[in-house]
Amino acid sequence: MDWTRPRGCPALAVAATVGELSPTGNVVGPCLAVEQVALSLTVPDAQRTVDFGRFNVTGSFATALGARSSSVPAAGLTTGGVEPVGAYRL
User: Fold this and answer.
1) How far apart are CA 78 and CA 87, in angstroms?
2) What is the four-CA torsion angle of 3, 83, 61, 17, rounded to 10 degrees?
3) What number of helices (H) and strands (E) belong to the chain?
4) How many angstroms separate the first and last alpha carbons of the chain?
5) What is the pLDDT of residues 15-69, one digit of tens each?
6) Which of 6, 38, 59, 87 could form a disulfide with 77 if both were Cys (CB 3.0 to 4.6 A apart)?
7) CB-based contacts of 55: which residues, under 8 Å, 6+ apart?
8) What CA–CA distances, in Å, run from 7 to 16, 59, 75?
9) Where are the alpha helices (DSSP H) in 1-90?
């Protein structure tokens, strides 16, 4: 599969267009600002800091889970006899 051409992966093109695709693991798309504004408008002032903390911790755990799950296919391939470099290239 050729990732450098738009026809290589339609899901990648959709994610990049929506704005939630980030190579750094941090959300830098337009949705973050909308989520933060919605959170601040729906939470009482006294609870806002706690809820922003939960919001950030949940996002960090989701990022960690995604990073961890990305190694599962390569681990399965290396267990099946594929060289590690080849397994991570797939």
Assistant:
1) 6
2) 0
3) 5, 0
4) 9
5) 656 655 555 556 556 677 788 888 888 889 999 999 999 988 888 888 788 888 8
6) 87
7) 35, 36, 39
8) 14, 30, 28
9) 10-18, 30-42, 48-69, 72-79, 84-89
Using a 10 angstrom Cβ sphere, with 0-12 exposed, 13-18 middle and 19 or more buried, the burial of residue 68 is exposed
Residues 49/56, Cβ–Cβ less than 8 Å:
no
Helices 48-69 and 30-42, packing angle to 10 deg? 140
Copy the structure tokens of residue 37: 């504004």
Tokens representing 87 are 């397994």
- Amino acid occupying residue 73: P
Distance CA 22, CA 16 (A): 8
